[in-house]
Write a structure and sequence with these properties.
With about 325 residues, the protein is of the alpha/beta class. The protein has helices at about 55-65, 125-130, 150-165, 180-190, 200-210, 245-255, 265-275, 285-295, 310-320, and strands at about 5-10, 10-15, 20-25, 35, 80-85, 95-100, 105, 135-140, 170-175, 195-200, 220, 230-235, 255-260, 275-280, 300-305, 325. It has two domains: about 5-145 and about 285-335, Metallo-beta-lactamase, Chain A; about 150-280, Rossmann fold, CATH 3.40.50.10710. It is built from nine helices and 16 strands. Strand 2 and strand 3 form a beta hairpin. Helix 1 packs antiparallel against helix 5 (about 200-210). The radius of gyration is 21 Å and the shape is globular.
Length: about 325
């Protein structure tokens, strides 16, 4: 029997099992009996390292590299917990939790069902074949019908074609240090561009990912003595796009700034980021893929988080015979929603 009050949003997602154990997922200061980490993006990563954590080996290595002051992550397992590829970024995992009372929970974490670059997408059909998911806890970053993306091959081709067509101009591509940066590097390798530069932070993660995946990024280190010219590409962390050193590069080389996101469907993304060019490229499911995932898993109850959580929950309740609620911090009872 499903406990309607078992799932809450506090410091991370918390799930109270009938054993008395608390599962804590993606907490900044994990304080549960069973600690889970979905992936190593900063907004899901701890600030205070847990003693033992359930995560992929690659996520453990990436987390340790990104939280060097906290030391190495110690991985563990638990008989009630299974992880499967989430398809979001290298090392990302969705988490299946089987409570002894018969309730099975699935926490997707950030996820994508598309096979992209070196990643296998989240396979809802495979999960549904093995598990009867009662409670789904899903991210809903693009949980509105406005956000439906073209086929992956089409999105990637647009970017590679643009890199070729603009060959005579140096370009600066902005993406998250983990995931998006590596995708952009691989797209550059498929273009006619000759030199690819990245920062130390990106190179450090590249090296870890190269050891885990059959991939080589072939990027050079960018420093203040590097001069960009025709055929050159510089990949920078997304949060640097408005910094003065970037303006200096643009002014001195005529470089073009390009942003990449599912939010690029909207013109506002281009203007907010002060980009010259923008392209749709996402590590998350679009609306139609979120719907397909719910339809395939057919849970009794859905909790939504991130992005258009309220809107997606409302859509599920009106279109599917499913109880759906968006998670609100520190609410633990359904009648509080």
């Amino acid at each position: 029997m499903t406990n309607a009050n078992a799932v809450s949003l506090r410091d991370g997602i918390q799930i109270e099992l009938t054993t008395g154990e608390t599962v804590v997922i993606d907490a900044t200061k994990p304080a549960g009996d069973i600690v889970v980490l979905s992936h190593a993006h900063g907004d899901h990563l701890y600030t205070q390292a847990p003693t033992d954590v359930i995560c992929s080996n690659l996520t453990a290595r990436l987390a340790s590299a990104r939280r060097e002051d906290e030391g190495l992550v110690s991985r563990t397992t638990h008989p009630a917990v299974t992880q499967v590829p989430a398809g979001h970024v290298p090392g990302s995992r969705a988490t299946i939790i089987e409570d002894p009372n018969g309730t099975t929970y699935l926490h997707t974490g950030d996820f994508s069902t598309r096979n992209r670059f070196t990643l296998d997408g989240f396979d809802a059909e495979a999960v549904a074949t093995t598990y009867d998911i009662d409670v789904l806890i899903t991210e809903t970053t693009y949980g509105k019908p406005d956000y439906v993306f073209a086929d992956q091959a089409v999105l990637e081709r647009r970017i590679v074609d643009w890199l070729n067509e603009s060959y005579d101009t140096p370009v600066i591509l902005f993406g998250y240090t983990l995931g998006r940066a590596q995708e952009l590097e691989l797209l550059v390798s498929r273009s006619d561009r000759e030199r690819l530069f990245v920062t130390d932070a990106i190179r450090k993660l590249n090296a870890i990912i190269e050891e885990s995946h059959d991939v080589a990024f072939d990027a050079e280190h960018y420093d203040r003595d590097t001069t960009l010219g025709a055929g050159d590409v510089l990949v920078l962390p997304a949060q640097t796009n408005k910094l003065s050193f970037v303006d200096h590069i643009v002014e001195n080389t005529g470089a073009v700034k390009a942003g990449f996101s599912g939010w690029a469907i909207e013109d506002a993304f281009k203007y907010r980021g002060e980009y010259h060019e923008t392209f749709v490229l996402s590590d998350h499911c679009d609306f139609s893929e979120l719907i397909a995932t719910v339809d395939t898993l057919h849970p009794d109850r859905v909790y939504t988080q991130h992005g258009f959580a309220d809107e997606f929950a409302t859509h599920l309740e009106s279109e599917f015979d499913i109880v759906a609620r968006s998670l609100k911090k520190n609410q633990s009872s359904l009648d509080q929603f």
